[in-house]
Amino acid sequence: MGIPLTALRAIDYPPPGEHRLIKGLGSIRLEVSDLGRSLAFYVEGLRFDLIAPPDGVPRRAELRAGSLRLTLAEAPRAGGGRRLAGVSFRVHVFALEAYRSAVVARGVETGAPVSEHGVRQFAVRDPDGYIWLFCESLD
Fold first, then answer.
1. Contacts of 51 (CB under 8 A, 6+ apart)
2. How far apart (Å, rounded) are the C-alpha atoms in residues 101 and 53?
3. pLDDT tens for residues 83-129?
4. How far apart are CA 121 and CA 92, in angstroms?
5. Which of 74, 26, 65 is nearest to 43 (CA)?
6. Which DSSP category does 94 fall into?
7. Cβ neighbours of residue 67 under 8 Å, at least 6 residues apart?
């Protein structure tokens, strides 16, 4: 069931300067209605690397961008169509304008860059309606 919080406090965990037990996000799994269309969007449009081609039941593929791993699993929705609301993802990039220019050049529609809460960011909606926010710190 995990380590009780009292046990963590007894060994002075987290160490001084560390305020959370979560280290970071390792991977995301998204259900998509058309795996081929989604692969084209993420690999050709957003420049993710394909690390495991489609296989299995349900069909799925593994992608990577930096240290982020993304699994796309085909799961057609009744009635088809895009997601209208739900999950969004924020991904930090090194050079926001250069990345945006690269994905726009590949035919990806993006929102205009905006600055708020100490970051500059733009949004992209994937073929299934998932929202990706690409950002860089203004600090």
1. 62, 63, 64, 69
2. 27
3. 555 678 889 898 999 999 999 999 999 999 999 888 999 999 999 88
4. 9
5. 65
6. S
7. 24, 26
User: d(Cα 14, Cα 35) in Å, to the nearest integer?
Assistant: 41
**Residue 85 one-letter amino acid:** A
Query: Residue 104 is inside which H or E element, if any?
Result: helix 96-105
The sign one gets for the Cα dihedral 108, 112, 113, 114 is negative
Please write the tens of the pLDDT for every residue from 49-95: 999 999 988 899 999 999 899 999 998 765 566 655 567 888 989 89
DSSP calls for 30-47: EEES-HHHHHIIIIIIS-
Give the span between the Cα atoms of 67 and 47, in whole angstroms: 14
